[in-house]
Amino acid sequence: MSRFFRQAGDSDSESESSSEEELMSSEDETPKPAAPAGKPAMSRFLRGAGDSDSSDDSESESEDESEMSEDEDDKGKKKSRFLRTEDDEESSDEEEGKRVVKSAKDKRLEEMEAAGKMMDNALKINDWVAISNEFDKLYRMVQRQQNVSEPIPPFFIRTLASLESSLNAAVSKEKEAKKKMNASNARALTAMKQKVKKVIKEFETEVKKYQEDPEAFERDYTAAVTVEAPSAPKAKKGKKAEEGEEDAEDFTTVGKGGKTVLYTPETIFKNLQAIQEARGKKNTDRSEQIRVLEKLLEVSVTSYQRIRVLLALISSRFDYNSSVATHMPIDLWIAAQKEIDQLVGIITEDTRYSIQETTEDYDELAERSPETETSDTVRIRGSIISFVDRLDDEFTKSLQNIDPHGTEYVDRLKDEKSLYCTICRAQALYEKTKQDDPLGRVVMRRLEHIYSKPDTVVQALESAVAVSDLKPSILLSESATKDLIHRLCVHLYKSGNSLLRTRAMLCHIYHYALHNDFHTARDMLLMSHLQESIHSADVATQILYNRTIVQLGLSAFRCGLIKESQAILQDIFATQRVKELLAQGVHTQRYQVLTPEQEKAERQRQLPFHMHINTELLEAAFLVSSMLVEIPLLASIDSEEQKRKTISKSFRRLLDFADRQVFTGPPESTRDHIMQASRALQDGQWEKCRDLIQSIKIWSLMPEATSVKEMLAKRIQEEGLRTYLFTYAPHYSTLSLSLLSRTFSLPLRAVTSIVSKMIWSEELSASLDQQTDVVVFHRIEMSRSQQLAQVLADKVNALVEQNEKTLDQKLGNVTSWNDRQDGAKGDKREQTAERRRGGEKRGGVRGGARGGRGARFAQGLGNQMANAQRSR
Amino acid sequence: MAEYDLTQTIVPFLDRHLVFPLLAHLVDNELFPAEQVQAAQYQLAKGTNMVDYAVSLFEQLHPDEEIPAEFQGKRENAVHTNERLQQEAQAVLNVIEIPEVAQALRQDKNQNLAYLKEHYGVTLEQINALYNFGQFQYTYGNYSGAADYLYHFRVLSTDPDLTVSAHWGKLACDILTGKWDTALEELNTLREAVDSRAPSHSAFSTTSASDPALAQLHSRTWLLHWSLFVYFNHPQGRTLLLETFLAPAYLSTIQTSSPWVLRYLATAAVLSRKASAVPGSAVSTRVRHSIREVVKVIQMEEYQYQDPITAFLKELYVDFDFEAAQRELGKAEVAVANDFFLAQFKDEFLENARYLISEAYCRIHQRIDIGELSDRLNLSHDEGEKWIVNLIRETRMGADAKIDLGKNVIEINRPPLPIYQSVIEKTRGLAFRTQALGAAMARTAQPQAEVQADSPK
């Protein structure tokens, strides 16, 4: 077999063949002795039990026997049943487990050496990609070695040292070399450099020791190994007390479910260690582990024990589901949530214990209490904040995966209350211990749960917190959610973390916008200058930014600030990717197909359904405000050229499309309604327009639907009047104000005001006659030649302007030699932007491209906002 | 009309001593009960070293009670400190007053210091004594003396913080002594000092109190309030106010931290109408279009701040509701009359506001009823007619507007601009611009030619 592979491999490139060959040989070595032995065993046991194992089996049997005999002493009748189940359960486990165990140490060493050899080979041909791969493999092995607390083989240190020197040589050579390496190779080289630097730092002392005296180092190692070696076999036949531990080391599984009796307070730490070592290994039965830990929790007595067990239990619950795509089972989630609560409770009750991410080393097996410690507090390694983060993430993930229209989703949402409580409890804990960094994170989590919710929901969440025994310092006071959000945000503004600050700011703005406080929200957004830097933020923050902007637009709409609303929403609708930008749906692209990974990443970003901003409502708001802005504008311009200046392209496109249709039936969708309303408005039928707009069903989703409808009716009247004046001015010489006021059922004063405004801003060439109360239109009919003269004058003007601009550019370049650097930088940035766009089209680096797109939206919006402000 | 009184909002942004005139004004216009204002004056004076003044206020306030003993101690203390500081400062002053020294002093402050130290043994501490003495004089109300000392200190000192502080002190002194010309100079230099502090560009670091951007915002806000004293007293003040306040940096300061300053901005814009209406006067475009700018800002900040004056402009130029504008003007009249800064401009304000109304009215209307227009201007019929005649005579409307006394109307006949004129209007200046283009090209061609000529050598 190996021969065959070797031959096949030879035709391949050298490095590859060698890798395969090594792989094969290293794998082959273990099965070989097992296989021949297996066959006779098979036949022998064929008729007997289903067990199909060979020498391993006999060994295990003998062991079982010894175990049994010991069990007999402890337990009376049950033993036999235990024995059997154990046998059945373990047979398969042991088969694999043992095989690894047999030569585990040697095999690892061999593997390492093989990898080292390959690296040497690859070094010769300067193939850094291969080296990088092999190094990763090697490093992983060494880490595994460390996990089982074996000494680091000198071989690894040797490789490391030599690698460093050859790396340095390669880098210097690369600098001089005329012909550059290809891109992937060069990238691998730099990556290697960093990796090696990192690893060397990690093993600093060893490397130094090795460099000082390589031989002594190796001697040390062999000494360490030989000391350990004899201890291993001895342990095997050793006493029962040691068995649990030894088993863990050798079998790497904790399948001995029958040993429940062993879980006494004394052995907790040993069991814990066993489980920790098994963590993340292939054959670990996770549910079994959880069961064991639960039992351990029951028997644990001291706080220290409980903390330790809880830490392990929670993390193993989170480990239960290894795949990223699916969510954690809900019962497990609830259990984890309870346990985190418990953990926080213990820590807050007894301040002498504290959980920290970094602590000095301590003996995992010893019981510790405040009395045994040098300082007053017992520091235990672990991180509550990461548990809380994970819990929250899992909650979101489960919501993403549950069908939002089913009852299950609603049931799941009910868990948010307890989750919110947990977060608040954690906040209280961190406030007490004065840990600023995790406190900031936990406050952010809390903020993210409430910022987009209406008052009543926030109050419900807060009331749950109010009854819990642990309360954070910031609480809802007198049902003013604004105040609560404000205080949470202020807390985050004061923290040093700029990402949290940005997010807090956006949440704050969002909340203001949600509560129709448009001006405050707008001022905050403009003052934050976020629109300038948002393109460099991470995708989640960009999504939050987009949500905030959209909410701001909606709030402007609700406040009756039609122009602002139109300007704000314009940009996001121009992209035609509203859903994608708001992370409420995966965009389906017409000309390209997403790779599964991209789609998966996209799906992970999605917001859970209850956080969505209704896109149909959004579209209705945008189109209606576009209608109110655009229709009078359309009416006011009469020449073709001016028509090109559009405010809202997307609206104009829809309108053109609607115009082209021969037959129009009764309106069905929101768009139909708005398009027909626009037609009616153009014709001066404001009542029809109003009825059509008001009959749009989606308005009911707006909190203040009736007041919004009233506002819209008023706007339609006014804009109808303006449109009417623009459209029909050429056909009248005078128009009575009272007639206008009757036609549009507006008060006379409002009509006068609107007409005056139009006259003042020179939109309408007319004047008012106060005695007869009429509008007098002054329309000058231009003759053909006059018209042409006008056009000519305009064109000449444009020509001169163009000339000036061109010259400016040229002169600008010549004179601003000093600015050249900046200019070059700008160019480069543009180029990268171009590349990004290109990448997007090719469907290449989607993450980056997304960022770029979001940025453009964001930036454009910033400008728009400024313009909107200026134009008012 | 107490609701439109801004004293309370402004006071936090003023120096203790600058508040005295404001309070004195409040006593005069009797908006608030006299005792309350006096109590406020007393509280204010208590914190200064003007012991005698405080005592007299106390006596006014509580005629029957005995003067607290603390004043006596305070008074002695003040006199004592005064003597001590004066002695310290005198040393430097003696040196400076020697004519040779005055001649020897140069622009370079470090050099000056070295010179003084070398020849006369003046140390840095002694110079700081000037500052301390000046500040002390200020606290007991000797403003002109304080101004002198602070001036000398500023010439000599190199400490940037103290210099800025001395700037503020000098400005306050000049304001309180009523030297508006020097105050204006002082204000301008101070503004430069404030503006030249490089603003920080980090968008996210605006949280800490020591942040330079925040500090700049604070000092700009203060500057805005202090400058009101100068701008509403200096003859050129209103146009200068518009120049300053409409500069982007200060406009955004108004919008962010002190929207009530809009009242003064709006008033100044109305007042400056005359100045900008005179053709050929050298006012910047910013001032000429000030009303348009101000209206925009007022509209934007409407949700934050509103008073009769801003409402007047808004009704007139945003809603074109002349009736409402008239109503607001009536209220604004009172508000202006009661305002400390604006009181002296009441008539001028009214006249200009009327002009603005009639201008807008005439532009929109073709035939105007004189009676109605007089109503709009808050004038009686006869007065209105007189006013209108004056208006027609004064402005360029003369050719277009005619009064028909029989029907009691003004007829405004503004013929639309003939086509040829608009074409001329459009093309005017094109030739000049083209020439400028050519000149610019020649200018750039020259250096290049020179370079080429040089290079062969």
Question: What does the secondary structure layout of this molecule look like, with pairings?
Answer:
The complex is a heterodimer of chains A (872) and B (457).
Chain A: H1 2-10, H2 14-29, H3 31-45, H4 55-74, H5 79-102, H6 104-124, H7 128-147, H8 154-176, H9 183-202, H10 204-212, H11 214-236, H12 240-251, H13 268-278, H14 286-299, H15 303-319, H16 330-349, E1 353-356, E2 378-381, H17 384-401, H18 407-433, H19 436-450, H20 455-467, H21 481-494, H22 498-514, H23 518-528, H24 530-533, H25 539-558, H26 562-574, H27 578-581, H28 596-605, H29 615-636, H30 640-643, H31 649-660, H32 670-682, H33 686-694, H34 705-728, E3 734-736, H35 737-743, H36 748-760, E4 766-769, E5 774-777, H37 784-815, H38 820-842, H39 846-871
Parallel strand pairs in A: 1-2
Antiparallel strand pairs in A: 3-5, 4-5
Chain B: H1 7-10, H2 16-29, H3 34-46, H4 51-61, H5 70-97, H6 99-104, H7 109-120, H8 124-139, H9 143-156, H10 160-177, H11 180-196, H12 212-231, H13 237-245, H14 248-257, H15 262-271, H16 273-277, H17 285-288, H18 290-300, H19 308-319, H20 322-338, H21 346-364, E1 365-369, H22 370-376, H23 381-394, E2 401-404, E3 409-412, H24 419-427, H25 430-454
Antiparallel strand pairs in B: 1-3, 2-3
